[in-house]
Amino acid sequence: MGFLQKVFLAEEDIQGSKFRAIFIGLFVAFGGVLFGYDTGTISGILAMKYVKEHFTHRGSFTAGETSLITSILSAGTFVGAISAPLVSDTMGRRFGLIASTIVFSIGVILQVAATGQDLLIVGRVIAGLGVGILSAIVPLYQSEAAPKWIRGAVVSCYQGAITVGLLLAACVNQGTHARTDSGSYRIPIAIQFAWALILFVGMIVLPESPRFYVKQGKIEKAGNALSRLRGLPADHPIVEGELEEILANFNYEKSLGSTTVWDCFKRGNHQLKRMLIGLAIQALQQLTGINFIFYYGTQFFQNSGIKNPFIIQVIMNVVNVVMTWPGVLLVELAGRRNLLLWGAVGMCVSELIVASVGTALPDSTAANKTLIAFSCTFIASFAATWGPLAWVVVGEIYPLRVRGKSVALCAASNWLFNFAIAYATPYLVDQEHANLQSKVFFIWGGCTFLCFLFVYFFIYETKGLTLEQIDELFETCTSAPDSKNFIPSSGYAHESPDAEKAVVEAVEKV
Asked: Which GO terms describe its cellular component (predicted)?
């Protein structure tokens, strides 16, 4: 634990139970395993000999079939992410995660039962609804439940869990792809029940977000939830002080009126700017081309003449998992902006090298080795930076009154671009259509250059700030490059007489 203190903040800034703060954040991040595993398993399944023989008429999937089966999950997740606030803002973040596992499991049942494309597609749509709800609520719950000294690392663990899910999917596919019966695809799909069950049971035990209770006017429950999260008595000064600031900030926001989805795009409190930042960073995360590797990697390597494409896909996933954790440790040390900037540089250089060599030396051993090597450096750059930090940014930059809706819209932006890329990519690389092959990396490389420019001009540094102080940051700092020099005041509870009066009245009611 001493190492964590050195990496994140000084001892006096680490308040409450360190173990509990880390454990709860890591457990909720487990939802990412569902996300990652479901995303990663389809690449191998579509390349399996048994599946191609029994799910197609000519022994192989057409570009259109591959496009539909792969991308239809993202269509479901888009709808799920958009609808997540209907659950998370009314019944709670915790119940929303429980509901997502139930919906997801129904989709898994249909996929396991499938013997043809139609039922497989329906199952992927329903599973996508569950993944979409989950993807919008996990970073929301983590951001609201974690203390500021480890919030960035905790939310980053969500992406770490996604990478673990992707790796598990690649390993299971490697173990079953040679089977000559339906177990080749049913085993990888059915394993997803285990991930859903673990998250379901855990969320029954964990406390609700205290900020959700404050939003519902349940102040006593908010204090008890905060007490459980921090591992301190409800009347402890640290718990009371944090609850006071949450209450003050929310009452100030509530004085501005009721909220709707349209309030996420209002100019007041720089909300429109924040909304555009969140939507853009999630879209750009997908435009890096990362899911080209995980959706179509096995088939792409197979078509490029690389032997043992299933093994190569496992290697790519190992790199993805291993390189996520340096980002988790560095996010509170190096900051959000620096990691995102360097990550964009690493991805851009790697992808342009792959595209250039693949164009100059097509179908050569040298080109294949370069493809593998710099695909790994691209994945490493993404995994340590843009993978986790896109979720960190959207989890912490919004005011409480619109946080649930805003995070859901950002997650929907991620899935919308995920769907578009998953649908279009087979046509871009297929020999019967655009036939770009490795040239497609010129597109991804250009997008990662835009990532660099976007971060420099628009991403604010929020390292070491509470969610309430981040509100103050956006109100007082107009330039993203200058945000690293921001020094917060003592908080809304101390700077706003009206807010302080509202807090006193709320506490007296309890």
From this structure: plasma membrane
CA distances from 210 to 142, 225, 230, 496 (A): 11, 5, 11, 22
b/e code 297-312 from CB counts within 10 Å (16+ = b): bbbbbbebebeebbeb
Buried b (16+ CB within 10 A) or exposed e, 470-485: bbbbbeebeebeebee
pTM: 0.75
Distance from C-alpha of 253 to C-alpha of 258, rounded to nearest angstrom: 9
Q: For every one of its 510 residues, what pLDDT tens digit does the chain have, with 9 covering 90 and above?
A: 444 444 444 444 556 667 777 788 788 888 889 888 987 788 789 888 999 999 988 888 887 888 889 888 888 989 998 999 888 888 899 999 999 999 999 999 999 999 999 999 999 999 999 999 998 898 888 888 888 777 888 888 888 888 888 889 888 988 998 899 999 999 999 999 999 999 999 999 899 989 899 988 899 999 999 888 888 888 888 888 888 888 887 887 777 665 678 888 876 667 889 999 999 999 999 999 888 877 766 667 766 667 777 788 788 888 988 998 888 888 888 889 999 999 999 999 999 998 898 888 777 777 788 888 898 999 999 999 999 899 889 988 988 788 888 988 998 998 899 888 888 887 887 777 777 778 888 999 999 999 999 999 999 999 888 888 898 899 888 889 999 889 888 654 444 444 444 444 544 444
Q: How does DSSP classify residue 490?
A: S
Phi, psi dihedral angles at 385 (to 5 degrees) = -135, -80
379 close to 40: Cβ distance less than 8 angstroms = no
**Radius of gyration of the chain measured on its C-alpha atoms:** 23
Do 97 and 137 touch, CB atoms closer than 8 A?
yes
Q: Confirm if 61 and 69 have CB atoms less than 8 A apart.
A: yes
**Structural domains in the chain plus CATH codes:** 14-234+268-464 (1.20.1250.20), 465-504 (no CATH)
- CA atoms lying within 13 Å on the CB side of residue 243: 32
